[in-house]
Amino acid sequence: MITFSLNGLTVQTDVPSDTPLLWVVRDVFKLKGSKFGCGAGLCGACTMHVDGAAVRTCILPVADVAGHDVTTIEGLGSKDDPHPLQRAWVDHSVPQCGYCQSGQLMSAAALLEKNPLPSDADIADGMRGNICRCGTYGRIRQAIRSTVENGGVK
How many domains does the chain have? Predict the structure, then answer.
């Protein structure tokens, strides 16, 4: 049995220990916000936080999160109380198809938790590897910058 915290709740699963966390979250716990993109940890669609760090979960065995805190896009904010980045995403019309956006948001949130006043170079570096097929990179950068200018994530 593997036990970890998922969006603040202690959960347990008895799936094989090498099952990728993404599939455990999606198939066992029915949280569908994080997406499968490449299956190789390259595109960022599957990004979640493990102990606050942005992690590619399509290649992370669930056994590696035993005893750790996992946050998905569903745990970042809520409909009634969205995370500041989620508000900025809407304000700047970031999503087009939306497929990559949960991973983009999770990477941006981890970036701002680690570096609350990032430069444009820091933003580019922190978001590197998150692929958006629709090409909304400029709006993503604007939304992150806007979040910083409006008081950040704290």
Answer: 2
